[in-house]
């Protein structure tokens, strides 16, 4: 039996490795040429300490308390030199990928199509090359090169991991470089390069109700997470509030309707900013956050969208004086704004 282990590095890079029966994560990583931090390899020094965020494993009892205390182990910390997985796992590594002699993965695919979903958003589909095996955690993103330009942009997967066709929801920015390529030049068959997966915005193990807050194309990672929840099963309530500027910017509602059928306790609420809209709920996402959705703080919140929307929600939560038990967010910061900062 082999297990798939996602190693999340401090610089946001994720690499997947295969771990064989009775193999430690450290040994599996070295076998696959990823030099995780280590010193003794024997459970003595604590250099290889990481955090297991998901999955079952055995740590044995051969390590020293000085290397990993009982309290640390109870919090999910692990010694990768002792950790033998008993399922697929996600492990956070306390080092940059470059320090571990690895780095961002590069994958190739062929553009399958660009669908105009609204005047504000496009759906890009890419058929990954055979054997590309681009693993990712639902919620993560990749950097996609703009063909013919020495530029790339970051996009969150809207498709689920493991599919040979990867999809992305992309805002159609009038003077945007990627938007311009997709609108005007993109043709089926174009070769596309993707680098990743990246980011710490991904679905965590589900142990309490989930509240998803999406602005515009910030819906993309939520679709990937919902697909994962459907695949793995989910008994907890999941509520999505999905806000857009105008009525016709609401997209993928059929996919959301399908999730209401497929998941036992999923509901979604749409919100439109435009004051002239006939939509039953107008304003911002924060205006429609009902107290019961926060479940007295016992909730995992996933928030994604353009920076002003994400900042507004963060400020709103601060003003409530109540932080959710789990709070994860991704800002779709434009690259040129990022570089100027
Ligand atoms: C982690 C991450 C994930 C993302 N995922 C998605 C996603 O799933 N879907 C999605 O639609 N987007 C996503 N984005 C945003 C995406 O990467 C691009 O920024 C966006 O698609 C615009 O790219 P573009 O090439 O079309 O526009 P660009 O050529 O980058 O221009 C974008 C806009 O920003 C303006 N701009 C440029 N520089 C500045 C500046 N200094 N100050 C103010 N404005 C400026 C431009 O005028 C233009 O209107 C994500 C971003 C990040 C960081
Ligand atoms: S490498 Fe020393 S405890 Fe793991």
UniProtKB/TrEMBL annotation:
Residues 3-97 form the 2Fe-2S ferredoxin-type domain. Pfam families: FAD_binding_6 (PF00970), Fer2 (PF00111), NAD_binding_1 (PF00175). Residues 104-204 form the FAD-binding FR-type domain. Its cofactor is [2Fe-2S] cluster. PANTHER family: NADH OXIDOREDUCTASE HCR, PROTEIN RFBI. This is Benzoate 1,2-dioxygenase electron transfer component BenC. The gene is benC.
